[in-house]
Amino acid sequence: MSAQIPAVRSTEQLREKWMKPEVITGSEILLRSLVLEGVECVFGYPGGAVLYIYDALYGFNDFHHLLTRHEQGAIHAADGYARASGKVGVCIATSGPGATNTVTGIATAFMDSVPLVVITGNVVSSLIGTDAFQEADITGITMPITKHSYLVRSVEELPRVIHEAFHIANTGRKGPVLIDIPKDVSANKTLFQPVQSIDLRGYNPKVVPNHHQLEKVAAAIKEAERPVILAGGGVVYSGGHEELLEFVTRTEIPITTTLLGLGAFPSGNPLWMGMPGMHGTYTANQAIQKSDLLINIGARFDDRVTGRLDGFAPHAKVVHIDIDPAEIGKNVNTEIPVVGDVKTVLELLNPLVSRSDKADAWRGQISQWLADKPYKYKDSDTELKPQWVIELLNDTTKGEAIITTDVGQHQMWTAQYYKFNHPRSWITSGGLGTMGFGFPSAIGAQMARPDRLVISINGDGGMQMCAQELAICAIHNIPVKVVVINNQVLGMVRQWQELIYENRYSYIDLAGSPDFVKLAEAYGVKGLRATNKEEAKQVWQEAMDTPGPVLVEFVVSKEENVYPMVTQGSTIDQMLMGDCE
């Protein structure tokens, strides 16, 4: 194995090197522009339409390029990089199937408001629209799932397009932007003059809120007897976690954080109620349903949070703080809308608010619910329970790791039993629920944060959608610890079939899956397995003590369910408690 990939030179050094005007190809313009945007790592997969770009990359060392084993791996890695770093993630794919293989990743980033710049190649300009070999209308295909997209018509446009793309991706409600570059554009030459200004008519996201609306929020807090804060991913994306902590400290309002909001508020704080919604805590769901003031900060009232909309927070006056005005009032009627960047809004709101004695009894009720109704499961001395495995990971890392997950039961158990202390420590596909996301996103996260322990938690189903990316962990000695929670079944589907479809288990058996330890070893990665608690403790410690990548398979109970659970069509206080009953 080679040493871990070294850091690139500072942006300041590189800007000085590449700012000078020069006649160069479109491919060279692309690389220089990426450097000038502060890009340090690109994930990609070459093909015919991007050969000029990859030719320019030959010997280029002013940012890293990681060759993934699938374009979907590349875009999920770029997504993980963006979520862990707060920077724009970048990936490159060729035309046709290369471009279409990024579509799921683009949709994943779009749903979760993750800033990406996706660069695709296309056939030469004269062949566009002729159904040429490996041609696909990727700008048309991705129009509903990008913030904006560009089909570059001339090499002279490239510097402006790239600069605009990064600006659009990383401002306002963040999201993916696609740049489609025909092969002749990447080959043609022009005088490169870096673009530093932005003039986008009609695109001017509102950052600073209306002060009158903030005064309304402060007045509502003063009068509320049962206030609740619902904080989402917008807090993380805005960098507003410290302002949120100050807001809660000033007001002493109980707070719940959505799936994508985990880490936005420290889990050890006594006012934190856990996660709300379908697999949320009893306390969070009861508090929302009984609240008289619900303050939504950077969340979008997703259906997994609200349950049945006509029964959601029936007694609450709703405040909604969001950078995207289209989200306010979209799903839940909002009495006090506040449009603006979450960090900026909270900075301006904090001096206006204070603790209200009217909510003292409410705080006591919240504390009682937290004590009486924590997450519970029936442990076993003879078999591994997945919840116990997550608790093991939490205890041994003190909640300080960056955790990525795939999608399914293991995702929910991790959200329930791992306690996050910091923002950008939790990376998961929330809105789209993309299987295959977890492991590649961990590679991106590790590239973004080489100083942090990164753990990728996967089910045995999702792991098989991305296992080929083990190759780049081995080649580059990327020290991700890969956890496979193996219950030999599509667990969340099995749970629904048990509880809702009267035990009709249809096509969920994954018993023919590979030996994950041998699979890891085939790629040159250490593989370990545990089937009981003692083995689990031993192999996990060995994984932690190993400097490079390690895959650890935990063989767990097939019948275990995620509880609590709110079934579709129910209100969020109509909870199946299962083992918590």
TrEMBL record:
Cofactor dependence: thiamine diphosphate; Mg(2+)
Record note on cofactor: Binds 1 thiamine pyrophosphate per subunit. Binds 1 Mg(2+) ion per subunit.
Gene Ontology biological-process entries: isoleucine biosynthetic process; L-valine biosynthetic process
Catalytic reaction equation(s): 2 pyruvate + H(+) = (2S)-2-acetolactate + CO2
Coiled coil (UniProt feature): none
EC annotation from Swiss-Prot or TrEMBL: 2.2.1.6
Gene Ontology CC terms: acetolactate synthase complex
Residue ranges of every copy of the Thiamine pyrophosphate enzyme central domain listed in the record: 214-348
Alphabetically ordered keywords of this record: Amino-acid biosynthesis, Branched-chain amino acid biosynthesis, FAD, Flavoprotein, Magnesium, Metal-binding, Thiamine pyrophosphate, Transferase
Entry-linked CDD domains: TPP_AHAS, TPP_PYR_POX_like
Family: Belongs to the TPP enzyme family.
Protein name as catalogued: Acetolactate synthase
Source organism per UniProt: Paenibacillus lentus
